[in-house]
Amino acid sequence: MTATVYNTLPYVIAAGEAFQEREPIFAEVGELFAKYDFKWGLCLVHRHCQLYDDEIMIADGYITQPISKSQAGEYYPENWLSSGEPYEFTTRKTETPPEELFTALREILPKHLISILGVCHVDQQEDPVDLLEHTEGRKNILVPQNTTGELKGKRNVVETTWKFEQGEVKVMAACRAYCNVDCGGHDPNTHA
Questions:
Q1: Does the residue 181 lie in any domain?
Q2: Residue 176's pLDDT band (boundaries 50, 70, 90)?
């Protein structure tokens, strides 16, 4: 993905507000992911900052930040747009979903959600941990909380990734976003 495309993604509050009526979507998406042994989850497509021309967002542990492609070393896709194009990467080895999964996802999603819902890697080796995101400068930092479920519906918290299991949807991460009224969805200078 180019920085230009990444920079057109919505900020987290705008994306979260656009994703209404979640339960019917979760039910259909859960059935889709079951066909692939729940190796992937659903993510709210959003950006954390502006990228410069040669940068991509790469996660290393709990920190995701812009890194120049030429200095990035080895990296793998971690989050994909519904088109199948990766938009965030990680230093951990991942498996790319098959094109059939993306095709089926686009068929499930209403048109207005195709640009804000995507696919995320679910690490099968790790125990699920509720994570709370916040941004410091151009770094997006995930902090284990084990309280994301308790944060649901609270002001300035937007769920960002979901893991599906046999008939269940689990929030994997949420973003604590502080935003001024005029920012249009999220201002990286006021996101904490």
A1: no
A2: low
